[in-house]
Amino acid sequence: MTHDDTHAWRWRELLGLLVLGLAILLLWRVPWLGWLVYPFRVFGTFVHELSHGLAAVLTGGEFQRFTVSADLSGLAWSAGGIRWIVASAGYVGSAVFGGFLVLLAERGVSARTLLLAMGIGLALLSLLFVRNLFGIAAGLSLGVLLVAAGRTLRAHWAELLMLTLALQSMLDGFNSLLNVLALSTRDDIRTDAHTMAELSGLPAMFWVLAWSLLSAAIVYASLRLAYRRPAPERLTPGSPP
């Protein structure tokens, strides 16, 4: 095998990922099919708000509480930490989380194990930090469903569900950024971009564009690390073990 072959893109798997991503986008845009992806989008809101909280903790602050609403909006409260990192973490964190899931799966971590870990983690974090009824109910329900999926699904279905959650997180971050871009020129609605504008003196639109570029770079780097390498070798009939 040549050096170029060793580091070639695994286009067949990438194409499958692209088809899955396009299917998710289509379901978002068809009103009478939107309910099919609604649980995934609620999951994306949890990822967004928890990214704010994790950024606060990692930069020396405290994560206090958060809410998730039925309209897919959310709010997170934290104290201390590096505020510009905390404010930026929601959208960028979605790309990081999705890319991290893809990398773990491609490095051989079982999709069923990942689903179990996400389910248990989401349920515990909902009990500890969520402060509204819908958010608690949604977090616990999603947590139970993820644990059930991790325990009962066959390996290939578990992998499909895990990749769907990963893609949902990546795409939801970009979709939310487009919504924020539309709101960035308004002063009557407060977004993370407006918070960054107040902290930096740069316009909100600048931060939306910066987060979009950073998220795109994270997604590309994750896919490159995951799929620009040889697939794991499998034994063929008649080959030595």
Task: Write a structural description.
The structure is a single chain. The protein starts with a helix and ends in a 14-residue tail after the last helix. The chain has helices spanning 3-6, 11-29, 38-58, 83-106, 111-129, 133-152, 155-183, 192-200, 204-227, and strands at residues 62-68, 74-79. Residues 1-5 and 234-240 have low confidence and may be disordered. The longest helix is centred in the C-terminal third of the chain and has 29 residues, at 155-183. The chain has one domain (3-107, 155-227). The chain is globular, with a radius of gyration of 19 Å. α4 packs antiparallel against α7 (155-183), α5 (111-129) runs antiparallel to α6 (133-152) and α5 (111-129) crosses α7 (155-183). The protein has 241 residues and is mainly α.
List the secondary-structure elements in sequence, H or E. HHHEEHHHHHH
The chain-level mean pLDDT equals: 84
Cα-atom Rg, whole angstroms? 19 Å
Unreliable segments of 5+ consecutive residues = 1-5, 234-240
Largest sheet descriptor: 2 strands, antiparallel
Distance between the termini: 20 Å
Shape: globular
β-strand percent reads 5-15%
Structural class: mainly alpha
Question: How are the strands of the biggest sheet laid out side by side?
Answer: 1-2
Total strands: the figure is: 2
State the helix count: 9
Q: Domain count, please report it.
A: 1
Helix content: over 70%
